[in-house]
Amino acid sequence: MTDLVQPDRLAKAQAMRAAGVDPFPARGVEATPIASITARAGDSANPGEMVGQRVTIAGRLAMPRDFGKLIFAPLSDRTGRIQVGLKRDALSEWWPQRKWLDAGDLVGVSGEVGFTQKGELTVWASEVKLLAKALASPPEKWHGLVDVEARYRRRYVDLWATEGVLETFVKRSKIVSAVRRFLEAQGYLEVETPTLHPIFGGATARPFVTHHNALDADFYLRIAPELYLKRLIVGGMERVFEIARNFRNEGISTRHNPEFSMLELYEAQADYRRMMEISEQMLESIAREVNGTTKVVFRGVEYDLKAPFARMSYTQLFREQNGCEFDDEPAVRKRAKELGLDESAGYWKLMNDVFEATCEKLLTGPVFCVDYPVPICPLAKRKPEDPRLAERFELFLGGMELGNAFTELNDPQDQEQRFVEQVATKDPEAPGEVDVDYVQALEYGMPPTGGLGIGIDRLVMVLTGQDSIRDVLLFPALRPQRSAAEGEATEPA
Questions:
Q1: Phi then psi dihedrals of residue 334, to 5 deg
Q2: Within 10 Å of residue 102's Cβ, how many Cβ atoms?
Q3: Residue ranges per structural domain of the chain
C-alpha cells in the first residue's frame, strides 16, 4: 500500500470484510446518467417528468452531511451531479453501514426523484450499494488538486476533483468525432499507417529510436504519417486521412509534448488552395457543432473561426519585419545576430528562426501564412510563377501554428534531389538517408495532390479555451519522479 492510504479508511474496509460485505464488489449497477435526470426534472415549482420516478444512479460521493436521521451528499458521474438523500426510516437495514461511507467512495443509489423542502433536486435513496471503497482521501474540501504537477500526475483524481477538467476531455472526444464526420462526408477514407518507420520523414524533427530484435534493425517512432499516406494516393485511394499519434524527441512547453495527435489528410486533384478551403470549412463546422458558435476565446482574446480566413505572405512579412529579403544571406545573418539567435545552424533554418522570432507573433488570425521558401519545404511543390517559393501554408491562431499544408511534390527527380540535400545537411532533425522506396512510389506517378496536417491537441486548446497543451492531454509527458529514498520526495498529496 502507498502512503496515500488513510488508516481509518483501511480499517473501514477491513470491518466490511469482517461483516461479510465486499468493499470492492465484482458487480456494478445499471445506472441512469445523472444529466438525463436533471434535464427532465424541472424544479420544485414546476416538476418535470422525472419527479416521482424511481431511478438508479452511480458515481462518486462528495462530503456527506450527517444530521443524525438524515444524510445528504452530492453524487457525480461523468454527465453531471445530483444530491442524494439518505433517510434512516427508509434504509433501516442498511443504516448501520453508513459509518463505512467516506467522501470519494463510489456508490450506487436507487430511489425516487424529488425535492427537499428548500427545493433542491434529490434522489431519495431506498437502496445503497458501495461499489468501491476509496482508501485515499480526495483533495481537501473538493476544491481540486492545487499543485499543477500533481494534477497532471494524478489525472485520475483531477478529472473528478477539479471543476471543468472532465468537461474539457468530453469536448475533446466530441471534437475528434466531429473531424471524422466532416471528412467522411467529404468522401475521405480513414486509414492506419505504420508507427514504426525504418526511415523517419514527413517532417523536420528529432525522432525517438527503438530496436526490433527479430529483424535486428533500428526503427523510428513516426514523426509524421505523411509519406505513407501519399503512397496511398499513388495507390489510387484518392482521399485519405489519419488521426495519428506522432512522436518527436523535442522539448516540452505549453505548445509541445513529445507524443501528440495529428490529423493528416491527402486529396488527389487538389492543391494548397483547396487545402485552405477544407481547413476553413472544417474548423467552422467543428466549432459550430461542439460549441454552438464560431467564436472562441483563446488566451484571453476572442477569435472568429467563420470562413474565409485571412491570407498573409511569408516573404512579405519577413521583409516588413526585418528590413531585408529572405534570401539575402548577409543581411539575414546580421539580423539573426541582432536577435541573439544561434547562428551555428544552416542558413535556411536560421532564416526561418528569424521569421519565427519576428513574424509569428503577428499571425493572430485565424490566418494562412502562404508561400514559404523552397529550402524549408522539402516535400512541397514549387510555385510555377516563382520557383524560389513553395506552395505551402501554415494556419495560425493567436500566434500559434494549428496546421501545415502543401501542394505536394510529385516529381520523383526533384524529390530525390531534395532528399539528398536534406541528408547532406547532417541535421539531426533531417533524415539520415534518402527514402528510396518513397521516391520509387513517385516514379509510378502521383497525381496533383493537396495535403494538410492539423494538430489535434492545439485545435482542442483553441476550442476549449485552454492555455497549455498539458490541459488537453489526459497524461502529458512529465519528468520521472524520484522516490524519497533517492533523496527527493514526490509531490505532496
A1: -60, -45
A2: 18
A3: 7-138, 165-309+365-472
CA angle 393, 399, 400 (to 5 degrees): 70
Helix, strand or coil, per DSSP, at residue 207: coil
Q: 3-state class of 67 per DSSP?
A: coil
The rounded distance, in Å, linking the Cα atoms of 260 and 291 is: 23
Domain 7-138 sits in which CATH superfamily? Nucleic acid-binding proteins (2.40.50.140)
Which class does domain 165-309+365-472 fall in?
alpha beta
Cell for 95? 443504516
25 grid coordinates? 464488489
For each of the chain's 493 residues, which pLDDT tens digit applies?
A: 888 999 999 999 999 999 999 999 999 999 999 999 999 999 999 999 999 999 999 999 998 999 989 999 999 999 999 999 999 999 999 999 999 999 999 999 999 999 999 999 999 999 999 999 999 998 875 455 667 888 899 999 999 988 899 999 999 999 999 999 999 999 999 999 999 999 998 888 899 999 999 999 999 999 999 999 999 999 999 999 999 999 999 888 888 999 999 999 999 999 999 999 999 999 999 999 999 999 999 999 999 999 999 999 999 999 999 999 999 999 999 999 999 998 887 899 999 999 999 999 999 989 999 999 999 998 999 999 999 999 999 999 999 999 999 999 999 999 999 999 988 888 888 888 999 999 999 999 999 999 999 999 999 999 999 999 999 999 999 888 765 444 443 443 3
- Residue 391: CB partners within 8 Å, gap ≥ 6? 271, 272, 371, 380, 381, 382, 383, 406, 407
